[in-house]
Amino acid sequence: MSHLTRIRVIDSGAVAMRDLIRRTAVAAAATALVLGASAGAAAASTGTPTSHLYWANQNAGTIVEANLNGTSAHIIASSQAQPLGVAVNASHLYWANEAAGTIVEANLNGTSAHVIASGQAQPLGVAVGASHLYWANYNAGTIVQANLDGTGAKTIASGLFPAGVAVDASHLYWGNQGTVTNPGTIVEANLDGTGAKTIASHKGSPYGVAVNASHLYWANETTSTNGTINEANLDGTGAKVIASRQNGPTGVAVGP
């Protein structure tokens, strides 16, 4: 399906609000985190290989590998349940299967793909740091940390419809999509989830988040005709729109 309808229950009156997530295959591919750039600069610092590009085709249920210029693109994993978000380090590839509620680990060529975390509540996005994996559970409103093999998974923070997560050497970041009465926010926390604080607010519907050595970036899915890409300093100050009128952007990645 090229569209997915979600119902949110707003605390103020238990009123259901329909959230149309316009994700075409192209938009789903945009959730791919280039070179594991869900971790932004951390991807480079942990020895991420620089020879390939990876992305998730949500509608097709596939993970694709290509050269950095996009040539020789080929499927390395198939029959996935709406994969949304990809991360990579020096030895493994990771992705979140939204529909199945799973986190998957595979070799860099897609072989030996296996579930390392299950029972997740609509995971949207995954990030990999030097020693841990992180993902956002949209329906449960939680941020989860686990060992790189998926063991020891635990909730370390909560949010309001979190979607997208990024990590660098010292901090964890995620976007809260919010509701009509609680607009979206960008949150920063310590790597263990403590000290969580909003560093940017009223930012539409943050979906994908990325970080490098100097800036944060996020995609506001918003509507099919007025999505935005945003940039801010690492502390959230100086937030500004750097690309507008995008068609339902759901992911963003940044090089070191």
Descriptive key words:
256 residues; mainly beta; Neuraminidase; 4-stranded antiparallel β-sheet; 21 strands; 48% strand
How are the SSEs placed, and which strands pair?
Blueprint lengths: L2 E8 L4 E8 L2 H5 L11 H5 L7 E5 L4 E5 L7 E4 L5 E6 L3 E6 L4 E6 L6 E4 L5 E6 L3 E6 L4 E6 L6 E5 L3 E6 L3 E6 L8 E6 L6 E5 L4 E6 L3 E6 L6 E7 L6 E7 L10
Antiparallel strand pairs: 1-2, 3-4, 4-5, 6-7, 7-8, 8-9, 10-11, 11-12, 12-13, 14-15, 15-16, 16-17, 18-19, 19-20, 20-21
Structure characterization notes:
With 256 residues, the protein is mainly beta. It has helices spanning 25-29, 41-45; strands at residues 3-10, 15-22, 53-57, 62-66, 74-77, 83-88, 92-97, 102-107, 114-117, 123-128, 132-137, 142-147, 154-158, 162-167, 171-176, 185-190, 197-201, 206-211, 215-220, 227-233, 240-246. The chain has one domain (3-246): TolB, C-terminal domain (Neuraminidase), CATH 2.120.10.30. The strands form six sheets. Strands 6-7-8-9 form a four-stranded antiparallel β-sheet, with no helix packed on it. A four-stranded antiparallel β-sheet has the order 10-11-12-13, with no helix packed on it. The protein has a four-stranded antiparallel β-sheet with strand order 14-15-16-17, with no helix packed on it.
